[in-house]
Prior knowledge:
globular; mainly alpha; 9 helices
Amino acid sequence: MGDWLIAIDLYCERHHSGFWAEPLNAISNVSFFLAACWGLYLARRCSVSISTYALCGLAAAIGVGSALFHIAPSLLTQWVDVLPIWLFTASCAVLLVWHWSDRHRGKTLRIVGMLIAALVIFFSIFSHWISATPLGAEAAAWNGSIQYLPAALLLFAFALYAMLSGRDARYALLVALGLFLAALVFRTVDLMLCEQISTGTHFLWHIANGGVVAALLTACCISNDCAIRE
Length: 230
């Protein structure tokens, strides 16, 4: 258990090991709570299913987990940070597939199965690059951001499908894709720009991803036959 509590230092803003060493990285997580509030507003206005409310809960959990990690970074709080992110991503993808397949269970399971297989293949190929603590030149160059490449590819695929098929959620997904690509840039260059920007750019990753979460919640509500449109 001791190893799980050892403090780790991964971001430019942290200049000492104190409790409040990453104020911008911690406070910027308010964006996820704002996104969760937006999702709740849409969910209540649209009378959507309980699954959308669960997504709003996961959005808030992302903010809690990330804030804890930047206040007291360790392997334990890192998992508290990462798990809600991937749970939200997976749940959102399944919900969109469910709606787009006209709530057909078999079709949904087949598509989700193919997505899981693609994800397993990706992580098998790039496992030596994916690490919170850079293990080599390749990982250091990406600052650990390569672990989020599958999410970017998934967003691209969903946005492309929505555009080609004329889905109502297409614009919300395009906004989510654009913001997520910008967020990846902010996360990747954080350590590179330490000498130029003492606070780093990781806090912008949080702010941009708050917008991503809000856009995805909008897409899920719209896909659930909501009266609201982009």
